[in-house]
Each structure stands twice: as structure tokens, then as C-alpha cells.
Amino acid sequence: MLGSAADVYGPGSILSLIVSGSVSNSFIGAGVNPVDGLFNDGDDRSAGGKSAIKAITIKGTLDSATAFESSAFPKKIRVAGKVAGTAGDPRFKIVS
């Protein structure tokens, strides 16, 4: 029997994330195991499978304090009506 603090993480994907406003100071993850219970602290791992965030559209702004974690991301996203790349952007962390 699992205790109340025994969390289970598994693969998962977000097919399309659409935000009609802005995104600030947020964490968005798909298929992520936070290992120690804290997301985005440097030790997160993939929860297995082929997890991905496949499409992102943010109609407002996206701040630098927001973090995305998954095993895969789209190469391009749309933010405030403009196309931006995810490669090399520190907000997009690939977990393995």
C-alpha cells in the first residue's frame, strides 16, 4: 500500500498549450519526475516514454522566470504574435 506521500510519475504529453494572456513565474512540464518532489531544481528526470510538449502559443508575453520541462519541445513557438525558437532558450529544459 502506498503512503500519502508516495507519488507516481509517468509519461505524458501536452499536444497543444494555448494561453490567451501572458505567462509569468510558472512551471509547465510533461512527463517529468521531480525526483525529490521539487520541480525545476536541477535534478528532474523523464518519467519514461516519449513525453513531449508539441505546440505552444502564448498570445501575451512569456517572462524569463517561467520554466518548461519535457523530453521534447517544438522547434518553434508563437509568443505575442511572433515566432521564437526553443533551442538554446534556458526556459526550455529537456529531461532525460
Quick recap:
This protein is mostly beta strands. The chain has strands spanning 13-14, 17-19, 27-29, 32-33, 45-46, 52-53, 56-58, 67-70, 76-79, 82-85, 92-94.
Supply the key terms.
11 strands, four-stranded mixed sheet, 0% helix, three-stranded parallel sheet, 96 residues, globular, single chain, mainly beta
Q: Can you walk through the features of this model?
A:
A four-stranded mixed β-sheet has the order 2-7-9-10, with no helix packed on it. A hairpin with a 2-residue loop joins strand 9 and strand 10 (82-85). The protein has 96 residues and is mainly β. The mean pLDDT is 93. The protein starts with 12 loop residues before the first strand and ends with a strand. 0% of the residues lie in helices and 33% in strands. The chain contains no helices and eleven strands. The protein has one domain.
